[in-house]
């Protein structure tokens, strides 16, 4: 019997965000928006969901007078992502 895929990571945009954050130390909102081709509103909602789950940390600050949102994956997020990938592999290698 297969383990269920994490529904939080099964969303295309959230999975894309996690995939990007896994490979960098941290990423700015604008970088994630460009790389995922998402709207600011949709990305913001998905980042909130990942943050509420404890998968990422979202830090809001200012760069000069402009707001700056920086995201970083957490240990819990890395573990969840790795489990998701391993579960996906089980489905593929069935």
Provide an overview of this structure.
Residues 13-92 form the Winged helix DNA-binding domain. The chain is an alpha+beta fold. The chain has helices at 12-22, 29-36, 40-52, 75-92, and strands at 27-28, 56-63, 66-73. The chain has a three-stranded antiparallel sheet. The mean pLDDT is 94.
Give the overall pLDDT as a whole number: 94
CATH architecture designation: Orthogonal Bundle
Classify the beta-strand content into a percent band.
15-25%
Q: Which CATH top level class fits?
A: Mainly Alpha
CATH-defined topology: Arc Repressor Mutant, subunit A
Derived structural class: alpha+beta
What is the number of strand segments?
Answer: 3
Major sheet: 3 strands, antiparallel
What is the radius of gyration? 14 Å
Number of helical elements: 4
Shape estimate? elongated
* Oligomeric state of this protein: single chain
The CATH H-level homologous superfamily: Winged helix-like DNA-binding domain superfamily/Winged helix DNA-binding domain
Helicity, as a percent range = 40-55%
In what order do the strands lie side by side in the largest sheet? 1-3-2
What is the N-to-C order of secondary-structure elements (H for helix, E for strand)?
HEHHEEH
Termini separation: 11 Å
How many distinct domains?
1
Which regions are unreliable across 5 or more consecutive residues at pLDDT < 50? none
